[in-house]
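User: I'm preparing a small set of examples for a lab meeting where we compare how different chains pack in three dimensions. I only have the primary sequence for this one, and I'd like the structure in token form so I can line it up with the others. Please keep the answer compact; I'll paste it straight into my notes.
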Amino acid sequence: MPKDRIVLVDSHAHIDTSRFARDREEVIQAAVAGGVTRMVDPGCDLASSRDALALAKAHPGTIFAGVGVHPHEATTYTDEIGEQLRTLAREPEVVAIGEFGLDHFRMLSPRNVQREVFCAHLDLARKCNLPCIIHVRDAHDDVMELLRAHGRDLHMVAIYVGSFTVSLETLLRPESVSPLRVLCSPLPGHSPSRVMLYLKLPAWSRWIVS
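Assistant: Understood. Below is the structure token output for the 210-residue chain.
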């Protein structure tokens, strides 16, 4: 690959889901043709984590997998599932733990269960030496609390995935209370240069293309 070529990475492509059942291969080929040469497919439960890994093995070097349990599915998490995720994470195609996190908007799982499963995933990321794909919705303060309490010795910076219920002007305002500044404030031992901000589309697309 030429050194001056820009490599575009889709860091959050649930390409394994049933919505792509009819044209999955065409979508992958179109993405690569359009310059998106790397894709990360995060699992949302044990089954989809396995599917993401299988897809990554079928497309080596192009698709990579994350393994984890989404907060909507937090009540399904058990220690046994955690061990199975850890086994999957040993595969070279797995590059992250997730998608896990906290979702206090839909609240499809009890708050305390979400927090327990969140911490279990941090421990899994620590054991596997992998970064995290974290879903955050209406729970940013809680996520920062748990990361500061339980994420201090993680070897890699967490990746924040979520949606904000604020305007872009608010998100990017220079004041110290900006949500972006809060999320990007470095945790102990982490370099802010290794934090990635993910803006969920299509809600943000009009800002990105303008």
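A couple of notes for your slides: The chain has one domain: 8-208. The domain at 8-208 is CATH 3.20.20.140 (TIM Barrel).

User: Perfect, thanks.
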